[in-house]
Amino acid sequence: MSDFQASPRTPEEQERLVEAGRLLFAGACDFVFGAQKLEQVPPPNLPEIAFAGRSNVGKSSLINALTGRKALARASSEPGRTKQLNFFDFPERLTLVDMPGYGYAKAAKDVKEDWQGMMFSFLRGRPTLQRVILLLDSRIETKPSDREIMKLLDRAAVTFQIVLTKCDGLKPGALAAKCAQATDLARQHAAAFPDIIATSSDNGMGIPELRAELAALALPQAG
């Protein structure tokens, strides 16, 4: 069971965070490094938010929607095969880490095992990592690989938050049911943050709310 007890924000607090998120993501955001091996990972510096999800979950599209850029994050031409960790900096505030997609059906077994080994080592040993945003495709059922990653995050003692993608493709009733399922799933994991965010990179659903969550984890604006 999740150990988290989320304190509900007042409307004023949420409004302030939404504006803080808008300002943060309207500022500079630059690709700073791509690491294919753990020894290449840049030294810990700013608070970090990592994005994880199955191949084709819409991770690159969501990062681009958050930052308002069309090609900041790019999907691999060979899903499930890249092992690169990509780092994007909001100078002096926050770092986003784009993790390789997992669960690609055609990926070789050794590639899948490499992903888990590298990711577990990164997650467990990264003192600046504040949260993992775990993306689940709202249109399909939760896969065994998603559940395995949640268990991995529990073992690594890394807080993760479930964010649903491609939610514009669901009718309101189906979306409400999917959010309820995701909430129940989060409750089954000690490392899970309880709040679920439903998003769409196409129509902007949930983007202000997700920006607000990330802004709450960033360093304060200097000056």
UniProtKB/TrEMBL annotation:
Gene Ontology BP, a term: division septum assembly
Annotated protein name in UniProt: Probable GTP-binding protein EngB
Source species taxonomy: Bacteria, Pseudomonadati, Pseudomonadota, Alphaproteobacteria, Acetobacterales
Domain EngB-type G: 45-220
SUPFAM superfamilies the UniProt entry points to: P-loop containing nucleoside triphosphate hydrolases
A Pfam family recorded for this sequence: MMR_HSR1
Protein purpose: Necessary for normal cell division and for the maintenance of normal septation.
Family: Belongs to the TRAFAC class TrmE-Era-EngA-EngB-Septin-like GTPase superfamily. EngB GTPase family.
Cofactors required: Mg(2+)
UniProt cross-references to HAMAP family, sorted A to Z: GTPase_EngB (MF_00321)
